[in-house]
Amino acid sequence: MAKKCIYILISTFITLKVVGQQDPQFTQYVFNQFYLNPGAAGIENKTRIQTIFRSQYTGYTATADPGGSILNQVFSANMPLGILKGGAGIYYANNKVSKVLTNQEIQLSYAYHYKLGGSILGVGVSGGIHSKTLNGDAYIPRDPDDPFIPSDKIRQSALDISTGVYLFNPGFQLGLSLKHINQPKFGFSNTGEGDYALNRSLYLTGSTLIGVTYTLDVSPMFVLKSDLKTISPELGVLTTYDSKYWAGVNYRWEDAASFIIGGNFLNNSLRAGYAIDLVVFGTSAKAPMSHEILLTYTLAPPRSGKKSIIRTPRYRF
Description:
Layout: H1 2-19, H2 33-36, E1 47-56, E2 70-81, E3 86-96, E4 101-116, E5 119-135, E6 153-169, E7 172-179, E8 185-186, E9 196-197, E10 201-208, E11 210-211, E12 216-226, E13 231-241, E14 245-252, E15 256-265, E16 270-279, E17 289-299
Antiparallel strand pairs: 1-2, 1-17, 2-3, 3-4, 4-5, 5-6, 6-7, 7-10, 8-9, 10-12, 11-12, 12-13, 13-14, 14-15, 15-16, 16-17
């Protein structure tokens, strides 16, 4: 069993290193803060149920067998918990890197909320299980008769812990989080040969709201991602009309330029967004486009015998 998996582990993780992507990346990150940062759990005093689907490098194939694009799905829910002076949430993420490798994780989060003037600071922690599944049936070896290539699926799971702080204000947000603090390890060898540990991932995110006219707002946004060795920045801007409809652009360093559109519907209970990435760097090794769809359903703030916090209606989040 040990030698069966070493070849797949090494070749798969070398591929991941070349791509430079350990965790799923999302263009609509400004709407996906809870996934990036446990400190954002329940901080808006609303219950949000959200799903986001991303097909990265759609149609990419490295062999004659098509369907090699990266597929990411995240399902999440977070809510305020006044009795615990904070918020809690849960998310499930499925990351199909290739036909050979699939990553899955489920995380439970809690954030304690501090009031800072007109802002709220959330200090959060999350813990759960991170799993990797290797599909030997889909592996294409150089030597078809290699006896060390498995013919079935092999799965391994490990504890995964993250933490973060998130500053929320109706006019701006700033977050800092660290994923995979304990660097969970994966491997199928008793000697440790071929073992692989997740790198710690640091995320710094921010956005602000600038009122241009009574019905038109502009929101610059950014995210910096780092494995504590390299940095991958993104910078974008959204323009929102009447607090309901938005459109914008985003640029991911050394990867893609993106276009984003979306809107709030059903009395602002339903949020729908779409993003398309156009690859502008490394085009010879990537398919030209990525697609991303986001859906969020928001429940009214819970009643606890006192008036709920009222946010400015211009604030789109």
